[in-house]
Amino acid sequence: MKKTVSVSLLLSTYQWPEALELVLESVRHQVKMPLEVLIADDGSAESSNAVIAKYRELLPIPLIHVWQEDEGFRKSMILNKAIAQANGDYIVQADGDCILHSHFVKDHESFAAENTYLFGSRVTIKKDHLPALFRAKQTRFSMFSTGIKKRTRALHIPILAYLYKRSLVFSSKYRGCNTSYFKKDFIKVNGYNEDFTGWGREDSELALRFLNAGLYGRRLRYKGIVFHIYHLEKSKDRVAINDSIEANTIKNKVVWCERGVDQYLS
User: Fold this and answer.
1) What's the pLDDT tens digit per position in 87-101?
2) pTM
């Protein structure tokens, strides 16, 4: 008999309340609600507070806002802080610019398994569709929707998801904007490595440490879909340093990071 898990839905955000509103609206339409929603906020201004306050009233579940001062790109730190506060035993993670398919939470929960992390697909919402997207506050898409690319990833065919099996090999398809794992496994590797600042590699390096710790990765294809809203890329001025941290994790089969989630656990 499959173990029942309690899901904390984790959404990271920074200074884009219009996108966050659409993502939280897509949470309202989940066919299965999580235990709670955690907003990991890397220093957004007051404008995001109004959106969060609105959805605290609209959602039938708790919405927890975890915020830190804006001192540059410190996504690893705010994710650790938020996950430390999670009450669920299973973390389902997306970004605050990724609109969730209505089965997103249910799909991740359905494949939750011991010693396994999951990663799903991302459909891209094109730049020229953004005015219409925000004007209509669109949160529902299909393979045939206008304004998207990589549209075959929008196919929701759960039976085909069983074709994809667990693996101990890292997949280049892994994205931190669509992943899930047990909180206990996250704690076992000490969560995100806060040596990562600036854009890049904090998500894939976490997955590599999961694999080094003996976890399997499993791709969610035809399930667990998000629709990523186009935006300009963040500055990559730290990417060479971040690449070197990840390279060390690979070379030395690192499991535990020194500056991680343990700082925030009671």
Assistant:
1) 999 999 999 999 999
2) 0.95
